[in-house]
Amino acid sequence: MTAKMQWSLILLFLCCFIDCQLYQFHYINENKTWTEAQQYCREKHTDLVTVTNMKDMKRLINISAGVEFNIGLFRDTWRWSDGSSFSFRHWNKNFNDQIINSGQCAMTKFDGEGRWTNVSCDNKKPFICYDDKLILIKEAMNWEDALYYCRGHHHTDLISGTKQLQDEEVKKLMNSTSDHTYIGLFRDTWRWSDGSSFSFRHWNPNKVILIKENKTWEDALYYCRDHHHDLVTITNMDDQRWIQEKVKEASTDYVWLGLRYTCTLDFWFWVSDEVVRYKNWALDGQMDDCDMSGAMETGGEHQWKKKRDTEKFNFICSKN
């Protein structure tokens, strides 16, 4: 499901006949947000469509005639951006975990009493980073930009986890700003609107391809440009999650990305000309040096590390 899937929507209607279930798909040619579509479906039918097999998928493709549409798939599990365990909860009394908002990335922020509430990730707020101490950044950013800032300015991450949030230093920092403040809590993991288990997957297969050949970074770049489009670019967390699933099939410990360091200008860049905003460097992974390019771990946390251009790894090409 992407932001582009706003042109139309598919509804799911469930009829039961004795011991069998017959699913009827209803195409609704109205432009609605994901939340509006879900509400419409639940009021007039059963729910937004759930896809459980390829037979369902083919029926939907035939009905939609190539038009993009909303389905009942959304991210639902709360987690900390630095990987801390999410067991302690401190939501405010108005928090409702059942409300789904397509314009909301399910991020959280402090309220005035130190409790949390979920807001749209597009809202611009100050935020708290941490490394060996807590740092309040008063410049308002959306949640994703705040995360990039914390990870890219020699801090570790957005403030995350019970121990950090209960620190007395947090209260002192909060007293220095009148605005709500972002923390590193966000909603992740896909599930269906009707509660079905998300086991069947049918993501767009045309985005990237893993090449299981060992090449230097430069040879990998030329291969991708000759046979596909380019070495892959990662611009957000969704890209990262999709690509890290692909790299699990690699035969090397790392795979090359389209990430390159320039000594002359002293910065990292994507060969596709995208600005390096989203970052997923390992703590020891971004030491600036000449003749270095970026690679992703094929195991563990799938973080990025700088590697000598002459090393040979599998690599990921983009197709379009």
UniProtKB/TrEMBL annotation:
Signal peptide: 1-20
Coiled-coil blocks: none
Pfam families: Lectin_C
Span of domain C-type lectin: 25-130, 129-206, 212-318
Domain of life, source organism: Eukaryota
UniProt-listed Gene3D superfamilies: Mannose-Binding Protein A, subunit A (3.10.100.10)
Keyword field: Signal
PANTHER family tied to this protein: C-TYPE LECTIN DOMAIN FAMILY 20 MEMBER A-RELATED, C-TYPE LECTIN DOMAIN FAMILY 4 MEMBER K-LIKE-RELATED
The protein's name: C-type lectin domain-containing protein
Native source organism of the sequence: Poecilia formosa
